[in-house]
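User: Please predict the structure of the protein below. I'd like the answer in structure-token form so I can feed it into my own downstream comparison script.

Assistant: Understood. Taking the following sequence of 258 residues as input:
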Amino acid sequence: MFDLTGKVALVTGAGQGVGAGIAAALASQGASVAVNDVVTERAELCATELAAKLATSSPKVIPKVMAAPFDVTDRVAVESAIFQVASNLGPIDILVNNAGNAGANTFEPTRFSELDPDHWQKFIDVNLYGVLNCTKAVISSMQTRRWGRIITISSGAGQSGLDLGVSIYGAAKGGSIAFMRHIAIENAKMGITANSLALGLMNTIDDPTVTQHMERVIPVGRLGSPEDIGAACVWLASEEAEWVTNQTIGINGGSLPS
């Protein structure tokens, strides 16, 4: 089950954290993977380490891995990079829109009433326009081949109001969820699925003492891991999930309603 051999995946924001976990999970099931990051060095290091790991895991067919550094907010750069990915690995079958937070900028949680409007755009650009740009660049090819999987990594902040100072981030994440719903319905008869994963609190900080207090509010008693999200992406990318589309699936340890 969940065999992705022969498929080509692009994971944005995959140079570290959740994105790196998603790229590793897809590759472990046989998909060739393009590792994107806005920071070239992160994309290249992640791709190199993943390729080395695959070479020692003795799969039947070792999938290819390449670095694909580009800024998802730059539509021209997106189109150019995806052309390069297709030239090296083949047409993209699986797009995981993972790039988020504040993109290349600093994410400082701030209540909306205190937030300078000049800081709104960085959240909208990466969390909404980044999804639009990447989806636009792959959708026509998927339609022609009548197969595709589009998975957008969203957040519980896009579903529920939170007193964490993340209103604009939440608005952009909510927008990406709504966009996926429309893409799902527009392409439902073309073999293309589109779904969102709404993440809860993640354990992606090196110092565990920073997030220990957060675990107490999560019913299952721990923060989420990149592996948790990677497993969900493998399922949604597989043939077994062909009847799953237009969904927003919460992965949050029970801390938020779906």
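That's the full token string. The radius of gyration is 17 Å.
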